[in-house]
Please model this.
Amino acid sequence: MKTRIFLFHPHMDQSKVNKALATAAQQAGIEVRDIYALYPDFKIDVDRERQVLADTDRIVFQFPFYWYSSPALLKQYEDDVFTGNWAYNGGNAIKNHEWLLAISTGSPKTAYQREGKHFYLGPELLRPFQATNHLIQTKFCVPFISYAESYATDEKLQARAQAYVDYLQTAGPLPEQARDGILEK
Model:
């Protein structure tokens, strides 16, 4: 199974967590495509990206969670690449491919509780991605969420990075009956 990471981080030079996760994945032989480095002007080569996605069995979107959403280039990527009857509305170019989200947050997991600072559970805030998954007919995998790891010790961060690699190599789609559940890895 060909796994590729599509990394959407506008400030990789400042990211302790995403850098550690991406480096560990690369060292394990998983391709990491830094989308901000490829398209700093937001002018996405749609044909190229469609080909890369079509040639990927497990699509991983890795990004920091900003304002309960994704960085701007990820949204632009979806708007440009998934449209035009390619991934939906008659198109099925990545139907049945696995889609996994690898998210990093600035807040600890306790903030993503009903009684916490953000009120909602982390995976609940990813519902728009699950809805997109349904529309483009990919197989949604349990998200890999790293909460406030930028504050972790180097040892803990390395352990999280190894857990990421292990998960990338073993993840599978959510069972149909679990799609309404709130799950995370």
Summary: The CA atoms of residues 177 and 183 lie 12 Å apart. Residues 154-170 form the longest helix (17 residues).
